[in-house]
Predict the structure.
Amino acid sequence: MISRNIYVDASNMHSGGGRTLLNGFISGINDLDNFTIFIDKRYRPVIFKKNIKYIIIHNLFSRLLVAFKIKSKISKHDIVIFLGNLPPIINFNIDKCYLFLGNRFYVDNEIESFFLPVPIKIKIKIEKIFFHYFIKNVNKVYVQNLTMKNLCENSIRNKIIEIAAFDDFNDVNFNKIKKEKNSFIYVASNIPYKNHKKLLYAFSLVNNFTKDYKLYLTIDIALKKNLHLKNYVDQHNLKVEFLTFSTRRKFLDKFKTVETLIYPSMFESYGLPLIEAKKYDLKILSSDLDFTWDLVDPDDYFNPYDEKSISRCILRSLNINNQKTKVYNPKDFVELLLN
């Protein structure tokens, strides 16, 4: 087999789920082709092979010039892959230039529904304009689920859209492991649409029935923006522990010992923790929204906009029944009033 030159722009994937997926992508690289991968200076590669060359990108301006660096090197039979949501600013005039789109905001108008900081909204709107203007420069767009495919087909004209989801689990052992009873975990950063406030309020309602539970949140409470969540937990005496992890491996070691993933997000382009939970045999309680059903069949589900719906789902998971209103027959009701 003739080796090919593969150029990958991953300079926009340096943290969170993006970093996780980039690690997964690199772990799947074969030994036959030659890969040149453009990475952000904050990203630390964990895999090194003779056929992988990393080029560090130091700033936003350099990131915009990645396409020109690739253009100066490619031949007609090479492959170009843009992993970080945004398409190249030039056309390579080759048969295989692909974009991997994991940002739902570019093809959905739901941004106005969320209380994001104004600078972030402005940033997203600028990137959205950039995306739609330069999407003409790729041959095919890959997305992670049917919801994203439908959104793209309604938003992008005359472009091939295919579903190709992946994770980073090539080398993970999925043997059964003892679970911590009545434990829950929510893997998400503190962004408004991740819905932490309603989740914590739901657990405050659960407190009226039981305190035999433990909720883990992957949030760094050392950051000032997260202190309000810690204060709420303390004020309502919730059994919540905040976790931070130095490595992906340490996170997974903890993740696989938890009994249930709870996922109250209101907006996702993928939902990687749902895949992780399925592979680690966690029960899944999730929002009754399309991104959930695109990936898994949850053990139970709820309305993420309603704290009481979330709390009822948690109570069902804990095998605790809400007290139901007694319905009298007419005779007993009259007797009740007369006695």
About this structure: The mean pLDDT is 90. Residues 193 and 266 are 5 Å apart (CA to CA). The radius of gyration is 24 Å.
